[in-house]
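Record type: monomer structure entry
Structure origin: computed from sequence
Chain ID: A
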Amino acid sequence: MNDGYLLHKRILLVDDEPELLHMVFTILTEYGFQNVKTAKSVKQALEEIEKSRPELAILDVMLPDGNGFDLLKQLKKNDDYPVLFLTARGEDDDKFKGFGVGADDYIIKPFLPREFMFRVMAILRRSYKDENPLVQLRDSRIDFSRAEVIKNDKHIPLTAKEYELLSALYRHAGRIVTIDALCEAAWGDNPFGYENSLMAHIRRIREKIELNPSQPVSLVTVRGLGYKLMTEGK
């Protein structure tokens, strides 16, 4: 399943520890989330909610002017978007209370960044599973749900590697994705030595998505760095 559309979701991160707030913000943005807002108190959180209308809230329990449980109750009065607790409060009673007031998950500090992102994505997939759009390019569309490209009314299947590469590019649409990052996306944690294979896959992807593969406008090369996927509206 393609996750690129989820990276446009608005996230509100609420925590009064500046270092942890910065760390979690960095984890989310480096993964590809493009709209992450932060708050350090209940008051700031409520102000930010009015402005940005988040689609996922990540809350600490202990805040300087209240607590995350009461904040969640206030959120649920107006909207029903998912909420994740990220807190040092690991007692069973706190977990039960968190789930009891409507939390979708509860993570205890310290945590592993990979596990944190796994849980964030799992929540978003469950909550927004019916919102997987077609990705519009200049001369074609990508349908990740069917692993195919639609060009000139023809449906062109994607291979597994092409799918993984396009997914990684779409997560960062409009921005450079390095050669190393693309190799890791397609070939795992030991991506060294796959640069030639990557170039071959890029050529085949361009043949599928571009009107003129020798003069690409949707999958462009950034010389010496990597590639960018240019979607309509980016």
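Annotation 1: The first strand starts at residue 11 and ends at 14.
Annotation 2: The two ends are 22 Å apart (CA to CA).
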